[in-house]
UniProtKB/TrEMBL annotation:
One of its GO terms (molecular function) is DNA-binding transcription factor activity. This is MarR family protein. Gene3D superfamilies: Winged helix-like DNA-binding domain superfamily/Winged helix DNA-binding domain. It comes from Spirosoma endophyticum. Pfam families: MarR_2. Residues 9-159 form the HTH marR-type domain. InterPro entries: ArsR-like_HTH, HTH_MarR-typ, MarR/SlyA-like, WH-like_DNA-bd_sf, WH_DNA-bd_sf.
């Protein structure tokens, strides 16, 4: 019996975290098995830089919808591993523009088949679902973009307090 599933809406965030952890464990194991020194936490930023580079730190944060400090943490790790390089923007010296290093570029052909497999497996799993998880996530994210979870809870508490 899955107690978190029994808690339904109360455990939604915990179940999403558990699902994320399950994915990350699998992906990490595949990277290791493939002999790649690559952390699952780096993937979205690495792909964005590979596809859009040179790109500024703030642009990464905005495009991925994550905090500036979270981006900085990953960028520091990617730089430490020699996978990206940064240079000051010629237009705005305060901005750091990031691109893949030669090492990062060389790793792309090793990563791409794994990413293609991740996509194929996710597509297969989603195709077998009664409700498309990606669409549900998109709808949930859109609702939270309109009004935060905190604000929604405050409104609910105010309604029930009356």
């Amino acid at each position: 019996m899955d107690f978190m599933a029994d808690m339904a809406e109360l455990a939604l965030a915990s179940r999403l975290r558990r699902l994320s952890d399950t994915y990350w464990q699998g992906v990490t194991a595949i990277y290791r098995q493939s002999g790649l020194d690559f952390d699952v936490r780096w993937a979205t930023i690495f792909v964005l830089i590979a596809r859009q580079g040179p790109v500024a730190v703030m642009e990464i944060a905005e495009r991925l919808g994550i905090t500036h400090p979270a981006v900085i943490q990953v960028i520091n790790e990617l730089e430490k591993r020699g996978l990206i390089v940064s240079a000051k923007s010629e237009q705005d010296g305060r901005k750091r523009l990031l691109t893949l290093s030669e090492t990062g570029q060389a790793m792309l052909p090793q990563l791409q088949p794994l990413w293609d497999a991740f996509i194929a497996v996710n597509q297969d799993m989603i195709a077998r679902q009664q409700h498309n998880l990606l669409i549900s996530l998109q709808e949930m994210e859109a609702q939270l973009a309109e009004k935060t979870f905190f604000d929604r809870i405050q409104e609910q508490l105010n309604r029930t307090a009356k």
